Sequence to fold (692 residues):
Amino acid sequence: MLALSRGETVSAAWLLTAAIATYAIGYRFYSRFIAQRVFQLDAKRTTPAVRFNDGRDYVPTNRVIVFGHHFAAIAGPGPLVGPTLAAQFGFLPGTIWLLVGAVVGGAVQDFVILCASIRRDGKSLAAMAREEIGPVAGGMALFAILGIMIILIAVLALVIVNALKSSPWGTVTLLLTIPIALFLGVYLRWVRPHRVLEATAIGVALLIGALYAGQWAAATPVVAKMFTLSPIVLAWSLMVYGFAASVLPVWLLLAPRDYLSAFVKIGVVVALGIGILFLLPPLKMPALTRYIDGTGPVFAGSLFPFAFITIACGAVSGFHALISSGTTPKLLESEPDARPVGYGGMLTESMVAVMALIAACALTPGVYFAINSPASAIGTTVASAATAVSSWGFQVSPQDLTNLAHQVGEASLLSRTGGAPSLAVGMATIFSGFFSRGGALALWYHFAIMFEALFILTVLDAGTRVGRFILQDLLGHISPALGRVSWYPGVVLASALFVAGWGVFLIQGVTGGFNSLWPLFGIANQLLAAIALSVGTTVIIKMGKPRYALVTLVPLVWLVAVTSTASVEKIFAADPKLGLLAHAKTVTGSLAFADYLDALVAGFFLVSVLVVVFDAVRVWLRVISPAVDLVAQP
Amino acid sequence: MTLREVRDAVLRIIGAPDYDGYVAHMREHHPDEPVISRDAFMRERLAARYERPGARCC
Fold:
C-alpha cells in the first residue's frame, strides 16, 4: 500500500488510506489479542472505579466519555510539532514510523499500562515501577518524570517564543488569552457560578475577538512597535507566567484556560480532519530527501535514530503512561473498555500526527526549509534564503518568500524554527482553502498560531504546577515545612526552583537554537516509554505468561536501541552540528556551558534507561527461574 | 440522548467536576455523612486535578 504512494506527486488520500487501514487492522486483531489472550479482560471483574466509587476520584463513567477525556488529556502539541520537523526526511519515514510505532508500540504501551493499573486499584506508573520492579526503578521513574517535564516545558516554551518573536499580531492575541481566562475564572466564581459551558462559549467568542484585536495591533504602527518583542523578552514573560500559574489559585487561571483549550483542541482537530479529507492536498515534499544522511538543516542527525526521536508523540509517547495510570483507570466502569480507550485513544492521536505531517508536506519544500532552517544556514534576507534553499535542490524565489509572509500578515517567515509557524502555514492553507475559498490566509494563520500557543500554554502552566508539587514532595524529605503545600514560602520557593529549572534550558535554547533541545525532549519521552514498557513486561511475566511478554518486549528493545544510539551520538559525535561535546569546543562562555549541560542531561537519561532495564531484567529472570524449579521438584 | 445528557457528556470530557454525581453518590451510599457545598466541592476537585501528573500530556 505504501509502495503505491511513491509516484510523482502524491495525494494525501494515499496517506490517509494507508493510515486508516493500518489502524483498523491493528485495532481489530492486535488489540483484541492483547485484550483476550494477554490480559483476559473480563466485564465481570469489577474495576477500581466501581470498587472504590467515591464520587470524586473514582467515578464509573461511560466509555465514550472516558475516551473523550483520555484523548483530550493525551493529545497535546507534541504530535503536531514532531512530524512537522521530521518532514525534512520526506513524508515516508515519518508516516511509516507513526503507523508502525503506534500500532506495535505506543498504543500497546498505553493499553498495557492501563490494564496493569486497573488490576492494581488504579496505581500510578511510579508506584507500579517501585512495587513490580523495585525501589531503584521506582526512584528512577520519579526522577525521570521530573526531568522530562523540565525539558518538555522548556522545549514547548521555545516553540511559542519562536512563533511569536517579532510578531505583534500573534503576541497580542496570545497575551489577550490570559485576561480572558482570568475573566472566565471570576465569572465562574462570582457572576454565574459553575456555568462552565456558558462561560466557555463566551470565552470562545472572546478568543475570536482577540484574533481581530491582534490584527488591529499589527496594523497600528505605535501598538505594533510596542508588541514586537525579542525572543529573550518573550522567554522571560513565559517564565513569569509559569510562576504565576503555579502560585495563583487554580479556579482563577488554570481551570478556565483548560476548559477553553480542551474545546478549541477538539474543534480544531475535527476541522483539520474535515479540511484534509475534502481537499486531499497533494504532498509536495518528496517521499525521501537526501537529508536521511544526517546533514539536514532543520535538525542534525541521520534517519536512524533521529527520525524515531524527533517523532515521539504520535508513535510512542512515554508521557501517556502517566495518564493511563492517572485519571483514566479510575474512571473505567468495565474492564473491556480499556481496549477502545487505551489502544483506540493512542491510534486517534497517531491520526492527528499524520494530519500534521500532511499539513507540513503539503507546503512547497522550498518554503518549508526557508521557515524551518536556522539563520546560520540560510542567512537573514529573502535573497540569501532563496539562494541557499534553491542550492539544496528545493526551488524557491525571493519573491515567493516575501509574498507568503505578506499573505499571512507577518514581516518575515525566515528561520521561524520550532515547527509551529510552518504547521500554521500548512493549516492556514487547508482551512482557507476549505472554509473561505483561499481567502483570509492571514486570519487563518494567526488562528492556527493562537491554537498552537494556547495548547502549549496549558501544558506549560499545568506542568509547572504539577512540577512544583513533585518538587515539594521531594523537598519535604529534607525539611517537612517545605513539603507543606499550603505554606506560602514553600510554595514560592518550589515554584521558583522549578521555573528556573526549565528557564535555564529555555534561555539557552533562545540563544543556542532549537536544534539540540527537541532531540533531548524526544530522548526523555522515549526513556519514559522504556520505563513504562519495562513495567508492562514485568507485569505480563508475573502473570505467568512470559511468552506474551514479547508484546511489550519488542517495542522495549527497539526504544532502548533508539534512545541509547541517539544519546551516545548526541553527546559524542565528532560533527559539531550533532555532537554536544564537539560543539562545546567550537564556542565559549555560556554557549559552551549549555552544551555541557545538555550532554549531562542526555547522559543522565541514558544511564536511567539502562538502570531501569537491567533492574527489570533481574526481576524477570528471578520470576521465571523459580517457576522452572517448581516444575523440576514436585 | 437528551440535551441535558449531551451537556453533561461535554462537561465530563473537558474535565469539569461532577457535583450532581457526587451528591447522588453520597445520598445513595453514605446517607449519614455530610455533603459538602457545590463551591467547596468544585474548589477541592480543581485543586486536586493539578497536583499530580496524570491529567496533562505533551
